[in-house]
Amino acid sequence: MPCENPLWPCAMTGAVACLAGFEDVAVIVHGSSGCYFYPASLVGVPIHGTFLVENEVIFGTESRLVEVIRDLDGRYARIAVVNTCVPAIMGEDIGDLALDGQILVVDSPGFLGDLEAGYRRALERVAPEVDPDTPGVNIDGICRADPFCRGNAIEARRLLNLAGVPVAATFCLDRYAATRRAAPFTVGTNPDLASGVGTACGSLLGLDAVGETFERLAASVDGVDTRPVMDEVAWADARIRKACEKYLRRFDPPRVAISAGHAYAAFAADLLDRYLGADIACIAARNDPGTGNDAVTYTTDFSAIREMIRDAEPDLILGSSYEATISSGAAFVGLTPPLRDRVALSSRALIGIEGALRLMDEVLNACVNRNRRPGSEQMDLS
Question: What pTM did the predictor assign?
């Protein structure tokens, strides 16, 4: 049976999400069918599994793993094997499979920790190399399990291109070869998943963060033109303020409950407090970055989160599909996986200019819909 907590993926899923971001790396989940299907439902790209059954658990799993590797051999730049709980507990040594360098063995069973721990462990196994002569800037914090994965990567690349900065490696939404020639400087999209590759120049999560990060880039990298980015930051700030002022002329600031990864939750809380004067009733973070924030409760216990939200009686909930079920009278905006029963075809960003605008779009529309009474006029927030 898988040890996955569906509310927040474990280390095994984090490792899979990291490795699945490299389009020329085949990812094998070495475990049961349950261990395979949960990450497969989140990462959005094909992965592979050994689908271990009782007989193999009793007599050994290596022959089954070798069979799957043999089927994939020659079709990918690398093959990554993510070890799950059962083979790890059995103590089987599959490290010899990695001796030729073409196979990356990542020992990341679920009991080792949360998604972030598994993501970092997988990236350490990839062991990116910084080339001082590589032009441009790396992007990190991209994760295949994140519903904003592709949108965040697109927005980060757009902003860098706007400032005249070429993109080097993207961790992790790239080809494996890019990890062997990373640039010396990196900007992040999700501080919870900082890669540690090169010199970190800051985050793109939030309008203030965008401005500060591009100022650091300009001081470190030749040829960075911050003006176009700063102009967009000012334009977005004015646009959000105008829409929120219109909302507040008709409605009270919302009372808000937030449940997500720490970085996303903190970003959303700041945005809603700054522009809407929202009452942030509670924040439940799925991971603890060690910052010691007393305003945040770190938990993946759904019963604890349910009690927090029920006690808060929020007007607006930001979180996953699980939190959406707790208070049927509250408006809801998706912020973290899983987000079920929703069509999501476009590449939605949470970072940068477009991310801040999109989040406020969804918040204002959700709150207006909640507050609107039958027969009332529609409200134009543009």
Answer: 0.93
